[in-house]
Each structure stands twice: as structure tokens, then as C-alpha cells.
Amino acid sequence: MNVLELIGRDRPLFDADIQRHEAELSAHVRESRFLVIGGAGSIGQAVTREIFKRKPKVLHVVDISENNMVELVRDVRSTLGYIDGDFRTFAIDCGSREFQALMNAGTGYDYVLNLSALKHVRSEKDPFTLMRLIQVNILNTISTIAQAKAGGARKYFCVSTDKAANPVNMMGASKRIMEMFLMQASLELPISTARFANVAFSDGSLLHGFNQRFAKRQPISAPNDVRRYFVTPQESGELCLSSCLLGENRDIFFPKLSEQLDLTRFSDIAVRYLESLGFEPFECASEDEARDRAAELIAAKKWPVYFFASDTTGEKDFEEFYTGSETLDMDRFQNIGVIKNAPEFDEERLGYFLTTIDGIRRGETWDKPEIVALFNHMIPDFAHKETGKYLDSRM
Fold first, then answer.
1. pLDDT digits (tens, 9 = 90+) for 344-354
2. CA end-to-end span of the chain, whole Å?
3. Distance between CA 327 and CA 325 in Å, rounded?
4. CA-to-CA distance for 4 and 268, rounded, in angstroms?
């Protein structure tokens, strides 16, 4: 199965830019010590592979998923083998006392890359998961920046999202608020980030769900009106590493919109996916029909699919990587754009956020409206789309 063909492209997006800067990237990696936080997630694994294959002095990986970490090591050993440098993994939470002890134990890192994130729009369905999203996406970022600085890091990279540009959901808004704190921290430690599209077949994504449904012989369900940009896992790793090593302080890297990066409907990908596996998609009129006829249709080399119009909270009508008020450098790279930022931030507003979220967290329980109100204060033009329906209510 060719991922590029499934997402509607015929060649990798960043090949020309990577080849042009390969000598510089490799030289940086060979002489440096790296810490990758959230390195066992889909993007984190891709970044880890990009660093590993360029033979760093030190590559340490932190992630809370013990199982994914095991698979990362197996994957690296089975494809890239071994390096002379110090490659180790640690199954710990970057917000924990154990992580602080790890940061205190060694001689520090030149580059700290934070790929940890709660990335799903569905995470805003309740105030408890939403608070975890805030902890991971904002508060852990603030603390790990401080730890990186204390350890003498030369650069801190943190992944953002295209959903941070004119956000309509709490996940995107959390990343936009995170970017505000990055601007503040950039006065004391060089920082860069990246916004990019959906990573095809990343863990937990709808496309990853296609693999799960196929393996379990279950119907495939997808919206027929949602169009998204996609990058491959390797492209996500290349963009993050490029931003970390080539980006200037406060730069935000993003994929340029081009003929190679087209908006693609999830339902179209589902059709191509099933056809690549030798099945004819059979469109059902309801979830019930798709479930009830699954065994019958699959036996006939047809696969039940249910395509629907999206009506769940937080879905954006279109994707964008930057806003009209941001300053762009579109000339430095062939297929990478760069948002140039001045160190502008509202210190009083950032302080208010930390004080208020701490007060909410001290309560015996939490309500979503008070958190949404805080986000609206932080982002006055936040166009939150609340429909009362969430993805967990769909197949």
C-alpha cells in the first residue's frame, strides 16, 4: 500500500529542501545531544528516526507509552540498526518528578524537541479530558522549556498544529495559547515550531482507524464533506527536524500549499484504500446497515462503508497554516513556508491564564464553560464551534 498514492500525491513533499540542506542537517546532528519528548507517538517516532539515521552523539527519547517505546526501538533496530552515539529510551511522563530527575542526572541536551500533545478534537468533549489537554499542550510545555533552559539547551522545538491558525476547537486554541507562551520564553531560549497538516495513518487518526477496521473486518465510516491536507509520517519528521535545526528564533515552519499538497476528502481516501486492498467499497445508507451486512459483503469482496456529513463539535470547514496578519517568508525553501514572529505577547494575559487555570484545577470538580470562557479571554476572536455532538457518538 503506497501512502502517497492514497493521499493523492505522486512524490514526497520535502525532498528538494532536505537534499539541499542535508549537509547542514547532518553536521548539526552528528555534533549534538538530543532529547525527544513524546518520541513514541507517530510524529515523535518519525522525528526520532530522522535524528537517529544522521548519527547523533546522544539521542534520548521520553514517552509515557511503554508499548509504543518498545515498538520504536524494534523499528529502529530493524531498519537503521545501531549508532556509536548514546541512544536510550525512558518510559516516563515529562510532567513528572521522574522527568525532572532525568534532566538533573546528565550533562544536558543541545536540542530539546517536544512532540507530546493531545491532538484530538474529541478531547474537548468533557472538562476532565480537556484539562488533561491543557496540562499536556500548555503547562508541560512551559515546564519543559524551563528545564531545557536550566540544562543549557541551545534550542527548544515544540510542535504546533494548523488548527492553531484561527482556531475553532479547544485543541487548536490550546496550541495557539501555547504559541503565546513560546513567544514569551523565546526571550531567554531560542525556540522554533511547526504547524502542519494531518499525518496520514498516525496513531488514533481516522486513516489509522481504517487499518484497524480492516484487520477486524468491520465497516469503514468517514465524513464525505471534510477535506484535509495530509503529510506522510516521514514528512512530519523532516519538517520538525528542519524547523529545529534550520529555523531562527520564533520561526514557525509549515508546508507550502502547492499542487503537491491538495485538499483530500476522507471518503475519497477510504475508497482508494479499499480498492488498493482488492475490495469494492459498498456504500450503505446507515451505520446499522453497514454493521449488519458486514460479513455478507466482505465475503463477496465488497466492503461496507458509511459516508456522512460532518456535524460534530470543532470541525473546521477548511484548513489553513497561517493567518492574514502573520509575516511570511516564502522564499527560503521550495516547499516549506516560514512564519516570522516578533517577540510580541501580553504578559498580563499570560499571567491571568496561569492564575485562572490553577484556580480551576484546585476546585473539587470542573465545568467546561469556565474553561471555554478562559480560552475566549485569551483569544478574543476564538470562533469555537459547539454543536453538542462529538466524534465518540459516531462509528
1. 999 999 999 99
2. 24
3. 7
4. 14
- Which residue reads 513556508 in cell numbers? 337
Q: Which residues of 11-47 are buried (b: 16+ CB within 10 A; e: fewer)?
A: ebbbeebbeebeeebeebbeebbbbbbbbbbbbbbbb
Q: Which amino acid is at 137?
A: N
pLDDT digits (tens, 9 = 90+) for 108-150: 999 999 999 887 777 788 999 999 999 999 999 999 999 999 9
C-alpha distances out from residue 284 to 56, 241, 281, 302, Å: 51, 43, 9, 11
For the beta carbon of residue 213, count every other beta carbon within 10 angstroms.
Answer: 19
The maximal CA–CA distance of the chain, rounded, in angstroms, is 64
Residue 136 in grid coordinates: 499536556
Q: Report d(CA 322, CA 335) in Å as an integer.
A: 15
SS3 label, residue 107: coil
pTM recorded for the entire structure: 0.89
Contact predicate 231/198, CB 8 Å? yes
CA angle 238, 182, 250 (to 5 degrees): 60
